Amino acid sequence: WLRAALVLGAQLRALWLAAAVEVHTAKEVVAVNGTNQRLKCTFSSSSPVSQQLSVSWNFQPEDLSAHEPVFYYLKEPYQPPSGRFKDRVTWDGNIERHDVSIMVWNLKPSDNGTFTCQVTNWPDVYGTIGEVRLRVVQKVSFSEIHFLAVAIGSASGLMIIVVTAVIICRQHRRKARDRRMEAADSE
Q1: What is d(CA 71, CA 53) in angstroms, rounded to the nearest whole number?
Q2: CA angle, 131 as apex, 67 and 13 as ends, to 5°?
Q3: What are phi and psi of 89, to 5 degrees?
Q4: CB 28 within 8 A of CB 133
Q5: How many CB atoms lie within 10 A of CB 162?
């Protein structure tokens, strides 16, 4: 009996350790400078959502300087009291739907980097950490888009003209060759 109890205890412990929170995020998000972006983070847990559920969002800049806290949730959302994301991050999740997303307002190039989302849901305190790489790009002005469209359209039109000319020349040569062969056959 003792041996069976030890084996059962080891199996239950392994199952308890395997019961972990899994966090899901997009790998990369691209946003335009000056806009707002929702950073989606969802989770799955083998346990029901508990009152002890906590969410931590952190930021690692591209220059690999120190991590910065972005957002924290424990029974209610807590915005950062200071730092680059003060007054620029809001809660955009729904715990009951296993959604712990945030909204980052007025993006800047200095926001380029990796955001991490970590969820603990007692007793599932172990699990994966979601990572989202954010790239903030400059706006493309209408004149640049217009120039690009004209360039691509012109190149496409020129290519169609060249291909059509090559086909017409080949058909003309083939007809001329066929006429010469007919004339040689009739002689």
Answers
A1: 14
A2: 100
A3: -130, 135
A4: yes
A5: 10
ω into residue 77 within 30 of 0, thus cis? no
User: What are the tens digits of pLDDT across the range 24-36?
Assistant: 999 999 999 999 9
pLDDT tens digit sequence for 138-170: 875 555 566 677 778 888 888 899 889 889 988
Averaged pLDDT for residues 124-148 = 79
Asked if 83 and 152 sit in the same domain, the reply is no
**Displacement of CA 155 from its chain's centroid (Å):** 32
Residues 31 and 55 in one domain: yes
Mean pLDDT for 170-174 is 89
Beta bridge partners of 5: none
Distance CA 41, CA 101 (A): 5
Q: Provide the whole-model pTM.
A: 0.64
CATH at residue 78: 2.60.40.10
End-to-end CA distance of the chain: 111
Contact indicator for 115, 58 with CB cutoff of 8 Å: yes
> Measuring CA to CA, which residue among 34, 157, 42 is closest to residue 105?
34
DSSP tag of 140: P
Rounded CA separation 131/63 (Å) = 17
Pairing of strands 28-32, 129-137: parallel
Can you give the residue range of the structural domain that contains 174? 140-186
Whole-angstrom distance, CA of residue 152 vs CA of residue 157: 9
